[in-house]
Amino acid sequence: MNPVFPANPGAPVAERRPTTSTHHSITLHDDYAWLRAANWQEAMREPDKLPDDIKAYLQAENTYYDAAMADTQALQETLIAEMRGRIKEDDSSVPMPDGPFAYAVRYREGAEHPTLIRTQRDGGAAHTLLDVNEAAEAHEYFHLGTTEMSPDHMVMAWAADVNGSEFYALKFRDVATGTDADYEIADTGAVAWADSETLFYVRVDPNHRPNKVFRHMRGSDPATDVLVYEETDQRYYVSLHRSRSGAFIIINTGMNDENEVLVIPTDAPDAAPSVIEPRRTGIEYSVEHQEDDFLILTNDDDAYDFKIMRAPVSAPGRANWVEVLPHRPGRMLVGMMAYKDWMIWIERENALPRICFVARDALIADAQTISFDEEAYALGSTPSPEYDTALFRFTYSSPTTPAQVFDYDLATGTRTLRKQVEIPSGHVPADYVTRRILATSHDGAEVPVTILYHKSTPLDGSAPCLLYGYGSYGMSMPAGFSVNRLSLVDRGFVYVIAHIRGGEEKGRKWYEDAKFDKKVNTFHDFIAVAEALIDRQYTHKGGIVIQGGSAGGLLVGAVLNMRPDLLAGAIADVPFVDVLNTILDDTLPLTPGEWSQWGNPIESADAFADIRAYSPYDNVTVQDYPAMLVTAGVSDPRVTYWEPAKWVAKLRVTKTDNNILMLRTNMTSGHFGKSGRFAALEDAARSYAFAIKAAGRL
Known about the structure:
Blueprint: E1 19-23, E2 26-30, H1 40-45, H2 52-68, H3 73-85, E3 96-98, E4 101-106, E5 115-120, E6 127-131, H4 132-136, E7 143-149, E8 155-161, E9 168-174, E10 179-180, E11 185-193, E12 198-204, E13 210-217, E14 226-230, E15 237-242, E16 248-255, E17 258-265, E18 274-275, E19 285-290, E20 293-298, E21 307-312, E22 322-325, E23 332-338, E24 342-349, E25 352-359, E26 368-370, E27 378-383, E28 391-397, E29 404-409, E30 414-420, E31 432-440, E32 446-454, E33 465-468, H5 486-489, E34 494-498, H6 508-512, H7 520-535, E35 544-549, H8 551-562, E36 567-573, H9 579-583, H10 591-598, H11 605-614, E37 627-633, H12 642-654, E38 661-666, H13 679-694
Parallel strand pairs: 33-34, 33-35, 35-36, 36-37, 37-38
Antiparallel strand pairs: 1-2, 3-4, 4-5, 5-6, 7-8, 8-9, 9-10, 9-11, 11-12, 12-13, 13-14, 15-16, 16-17, 17-18, 19-20, 20-21, 21-22, 23-24, 24-25, 25-26, 27-28, 28-29, 29-30, 31-32, 32-34
Helix pairs in contact: 3-13, 7-8
C-alpha cells in the first residue's frame, strides 16, 4: 500500500560524527551529538550565534518541511481563518476589584497582544496601564511575564521575554505618567512587593535556574540589591509571592515533589526569611496566611492525596500542625486559598474537579461544594486579590461549552454569570457530543478518556482520530473547551484526551504509578486508550494521529517505537526524546530537578537501565513508522532544540517506510512557539493540516 503522506525526495541527511560515552560499564554510541552547539546557552539568547553547520542542517529541514507541506497551504489558511473567526477580536476580561480600582485586560480588533487597563472600582473611564502591542512592536517575539502592582497602586512592575529564551527583564512603570524607569533588572523570575518602595524578586542564573531572592528599593541601582536567600541545592527552584493578606512575602523553594517554605513579614522587609518547616525527603507543602494562622496544604504523614492543616503564625512548625481537612484517598486536593473569613480548595476525583469552601469558624462538616452537571468539564479559579471579601471567581468550560466566568458569593451561595465567551462565527453546543469512557490498561488500571465528536460523525470505525496525551509531572489534562479543536471535529475527526498515568487525574497514586521504573505505564495506558477507541469503533487501526508536546513528546516517541501499527501519524511538539543523554547531563538547566521523576542514571545503574529501555532516541527501531511532524525551538530552555533534531536524524536513516518525516525548527523562539493570539494559530493550523493529510482527509 502506498503511504497516504509519502516522503518527498531529497530529505536532509545529517552527517554522522560518532561519539561514545560509558556509564555503568555500558557504552553508548551517538552519531548526532554534534548537533548540540558548544555555545548553546549563547545561542538560546541570540539564535544567530548558532554554529553554521548546525544552522544549515536545521534550515535544510525547514526547507524540506515547506516543500512537503506546500499542498496544505490553502488548507492551513482556511484553518487559520476558521480559528480566527471563532475569536472575539475586540474582547475584554471581567474587571477584578482590588482596592480603589478594578483591573482588566482588553483586546483591540486585530491586535495580537492585550492592553492592561484599570478603572475606578465602581466603573468609569479606562486608564491604560500597558499596551503590550506597543511594547512588542520592535520584537519578532514578545511574551509578557509577571505584572505586579505596588500596594499603593502607583507603580507596576512588569517583565518581558523578547526571544523565547524565558529570560525576563523587569521594568517599573509609573502608572500616572505611563513611563518606565530608566533601568531594568535582567533575568528575573517571580516578583512581589513588600510595600510600595520595597520589592523582592527571584534571579535566574545562567543555567536558567531560579535560585536567588533579592530585595530591591525602587529607584536604586540593581547592583546594590540585597541577596536575601540563595538556594544551593541545584535540584530546587525558587519562587515567591505576596500573601493575599498582604502580611507576608512567601518564598517557596523546591522541586516537583519536595519543597520548603520561608516567610518574611512585609512590615519588616529587612528581616531574614524564617522557615515554616524544614525540607524533608518527599514532603510537599504550601502555605496561605489567615489571621493568626497559616493554612498548610501537605502530603505529610502519607497523605498522598493531601490534607489541610492549621498552625499558629507564632510557631508554624510541624509540631504545631492541627488537622483541618483530613486526607481521603482518591480525592486529590490540588489547590487551596485563604480569605479572611473563608477557606477554599479545589479537589479532583476520577478526573473531574470540584470547588469546595467553608467559613473560617465553621466545622469542616459544614463545607459546601459548587456542583456541575456535564460528563466532562474543566474549571479555572481566579480568586480575588483582596483578603477581606466573599467574592470567588471561577471559569467553567467543557469540550462542547465555551468558557463561562462566574462570580460566586461564598456568604450567600449566589452564582452570577459575568461573562460567556462569544464565538463570533457561531457555535451550537448541541451539535457536538462529549463522552467519558474508561480504557483498561495492561495491568488492569482504568484510564479515563474524554471524547469529543460532531453529532453527525459516524461511530462505525471509519472516523479518523486525534489522540492527545501528556502524562508526566502530575500535570492533569483538563477537559475544557478549545475553539481550535472544532476545525478538526467539524471535518469528521474524533478528538480524544487520554488521562493517562503520570498526571493526577485519579489522585497522587495515578502520578506515582508512572515514575522511575513505572514510567512505562504512561505509554501502555496511551496504547490501551488507542485500542479501546478502535474496539468501540470511534476510529480504526491506522486512523489515529497522536499528539503530545515536551514530556508529552516523550510519550509520542515511546508509543511510536512500541506500536507504530496503530497510527496514521504523529505530531511531536518540542519533544523530550533524548531522555537518557539529557538526564545524564547535570549541566543542563532542568536535569537535577528531573531525577525525582525519572531516577538518577549518573548514580544508579537501575535508573540508567530503566531510562535506556524507553528513551525514544535510544530505541529507534528498524521498522515502519507512520507519518511524523516534529517541532523544535532554538531558544527553548526546557527541551533543547538538539533533542528533536537528533531524533529525526536517527529516524531518517533507520526506519524502513516511505512515510513523511519532517522537522520544523522555529529559529527565533522557544518552547511555546510563536507569541500573540493570532500568530499562535499558525502553529495549530500546521498541526491540524498535517493530521488531516496523514489521515487521508486532505
